[in-house]
Design goal:
- This protein is of the alpha+beta class.
- It folds into two domains: 4-232, Rossmann fold, CATH 3.40.50.300; 238-369, Nucleic acid-binding proteins (OB fold (Dihydrolipoamide Acetyltransferase, E2P)).
- Helix content is 22%, strand content 37%.
- It contains eight helices and 22 strands.
- The strands form four sheets. It has a six-stranded mixed sheet with strand order 7-8-9-3-10-11, sandwiched between helices.
- Helix 2 crosses helix 3, helix 2 (98-108) runs parallel beside helix 4 (142-154) and helix 3 (113-126) packs across helix 4.
- 38% of the residues are buried.
- Bound molecules: adenosine-5'-triphosphate (ATP) and magnesium ion.
- The site of adenosine-5'-triphosphate (ATP) has 13 residues, from strand 2 and helix 1.
């Protein structure tokens, strides 16, 4: 078991309030990704969990065992927390070969030699660096050093692994390979992983859960699918997904169990079973309609329920084509699979499934109408 609970954590650096009333539960076996823009507090959260920083208030539990109780000034020693860490800026021992760097912890634990050789080999293979075993850190590229650091952390098969942007120095292809290795490793070790990144694709592809931070506030914790389909706020919606979500201004009116929304997409009505807790009371208010680019279907012929639009520019990019469209005075981005040819100013008709769109309250920025799930198992 490796369950980690953070309760009401506050962390200040001087007068800078870096973590604000942070509550987070990492379940045993989770691959929890802490996601958010630079400076939002991801590394600080990881360091607080590891015991390298002391929060001014709050509690932390690991498997019901209290490891931090700020009120009583109790902070358990990092070494006793049984965690394994790879930092954003990793440090290898310069006077040791790659093999020895990775083997070090096992040697300290007095693991038999043959077993060390085999486990180090396995870790190096996973990170695609077995041919570098006899090199010294100074003879490696940044990305290679980074992979040695990960190999060193995983070789001990830790129950909890904390990783701070471990793939940041890798090129695009290697990053994809390493993502799938880490994902497999998570499954095979059954480990609890807390992973920090500001890369939303990394978060979406690897995690069982994503925790999204802005300015030291945890705004949403949920599965990648839920965070993508039902972002809790406008800024989460904007942060997650590439290409970016479209925001369309609208007027909303709630009357009891019915929400009516009017925008350039037309008039839509939604029932109370799609409302979130953030839905305001009866009345008129400004809203924002959120539509993902892939939710817009394009037809070259006029369709009965189609919304007329004009192609501003078409950007074929191999496996997909991005289309910039004008609908009334609103510009939208649509994504189509495959290579498609459109002329500038060509008229087209858009089809959007109202079930799949999100509605946000403009003033609060909160999600008020959920998308109904359309993802397949
Ligand atoms: N040791 C420190 N002393 C003072 N302020 C710090 C310290 N470490 C971090 N901060 C501040 O705390 C805030 C959060 O920093 P943190 O390193 O947690 O961000 P992050 O989300 O990991 O960002 P990045 O994606 O850039 O790594 C920032 O405003 C940062 O300047
Ligand atoms: Mg950081």
């Amino acid at each position: 078991m490796s369950r980690i609970v953070l309760s009401e954590i506050n962390k200040y650096y001087g007068s800078n309030h870096v973590l604000k009333d942070l509550n987070l539960v990492v379940e045993d076996g989770d691959f929890m990704t802490l996601l958010g823009p630079s400076g939002c507090g991801k590394t600080t959260t990881l360091r607080v969990i590891a015991g390298l920083e002391k929060p001014q208030s709050g509690n932390i539990y690991m498997d019901e065992r209290e490891v931090v109780n700020a009120k009583e000034r109790f902070y358990e020693d990092p070494a006793k927390r049984g965690l394994n860490l790879v930092f954003q800026s990793y440090a290898l021992w310069p006077h040791m070969t790659v093999f020895d760097n990775v083997a070090f912890g096992l040697k300290v634990e007095k693991v038999p030699k043959a077993q060390i050789a085999q486990r180090v080999q396995n870790a190096l293979e996973r990170m695609r660096i077995s041919e570098l075993a006899q090199r010294y850190p100074s003879e490696l590229s940044g990305g290679q050093q980074q992979r040695v650091a990960i190999a060193r952390a995983i070789v001990s098969e830790p129950k909890v692994l904390l990783l701070d942007e471990p793939l940041s120095n890798l090129d695009a292809k290697l990053r994809v390979d390493m993502r799938s290795e880490l994902k497999r490793l998570h499954r095979e070790l059954g480990a609890t992983i807390i992973y920090v990144t500001h890369d939303q694709v990394e978060a979406l592809t690897m995690s069982t859960k994503i925790a999204i931070f802005f300015d030291g506030v945890l705004e949403q914790v949920n599965t990648p699918m839920e965070v993508y389909q039902n972002p809790a706020s406008l800024r989460i919606a904007d942060f997650i997904g590439n290409p970016r979500i479209n925001f369309i201004p609208g007027k909303a009116q709630r009357a009891g169990d019915l929400l009516t929304v009017e925008s350039v997409l037309g008039i839509h009505q939604f029932n109370a079973d799609t409302f979130t807790n953030e839905m305001p009371g009866d009345g008129l208010f400004d809203c924002v309609v959120g539509v993902r680019p892939e939710q817009i279907e394009i037809s070259r012929q006029e369709t009965a329920a189609g919304i007329p639009a004009n192609i501003y520019s078409a950007m074929p990019a191999g496996s997909e084509t991005l289309l910039q469209l004008w609908v009334g005075d609103v510009q939208l981005l649509a994504k189509q699979i495959g290579l498609k040819n459109y002329a500038a100013d060509q008229p087209v008709w858009m089809q959007i499934n109202p079930e799949s769109i999100n509605i946000f309250h403009k003033e609060t920025g909160r999600l008020i109408k959920r998308a109904t799930s359309e993802a397949e198992e």
